[in-house]
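Support case: S-adenosylmethionine complex. Customer-provided input:
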Amino acid sequence: MAQTRPGSAFQTRHIDPERVAPLVAALDAQDANPGVRRLRAWALDALAPRDGERVLDVGAGTGTETRALAAAVGPAGSVTGVEPNPGLRAVAQERAAAEGSTARFTDGDALALPAPGGSVDVVWCERVLQHLARPEQAVAEMARVLRPGGRVALLDTDWATTILHPGDPEVMRALVSGALTQAANPYSGRRLVGQLSAAGLVVDDRGSQALLQDHRTVAWPLIRMLGESAVGRGLLTEDRRDAAFAELAEAAERGALHMSVTMFGVTAHRPE
Ligand SMILES: C[S@@+](CC[C@H](N)C(=O)[O-])C[C@H]1O[C@@H](n2cnc3c(N)ncnc32)[C@H](O)[C@@H]1O
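Agent response - structure generated as follows:
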């Protein structure tokens, strides 16, 4: 989970071409997380993309799911990953070419999708809305581009569900509250269903997965960032933070660490 922290580096106004490698590493780590894989598999199964369908992957990152969608719709279909970060887009293009995937990638913004109204059969949007100050506008855009009967899957983390244990619950609460200050829309996971309904779409199914950190290792980069944030905001003294760090390290040593955050998924369709 160290790699799943809600970094502002994914926000388009913070794009730094020099810092693409850490973002790619973070996305690769997320790709490997069993919880992410299970939620993706569930959502893909629920959407059931068919041969020849037209698909948009909004905020495609390195394109892992774009390639999976391209495989599902076959050579007669078309899958476009919309990715505003030029560095991530280049990696996505390279990986698709290396795999012989038909997935294509284009610049664009979730708030103004590069597709005519009613032109898309399937929209996929994973862990993007948490980075947007106006996620409801992005969901309205997805509803606009979907044809009647078209399907959408939104997947996103809800950072307020972060659990860190063991330790004094009050101290742990102060620590995990740091995760909420990192994303533009940290409660994204719980808002998905309401946003889809508000956009006039019909919710079909909902799923979730806890993304678990290995119980023997400590996600120090993330925990240190949370500790700095809690001390900086006056929620913890340095002494209490350091005592909490020591307790977490000792718990990891004996295989007793619990660290997780919950990711939610919702599938919906545009009424005929
Ligand atoms: C955490 S990554 C998720 C990438 C990919 N969907 C995945 O699940 O592996 C967030 C992605 O959203 C993209 N993004 C940020 N703001 C965006 C916007 N306004 N429109 C479209 N994509 C955006 C970022 O460049 C980044 O690729």
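The domain at 2-269 is CATH 3.40.50.150 (Rossmann fold).

Case will auto-close in a few days if no follow-up is received.
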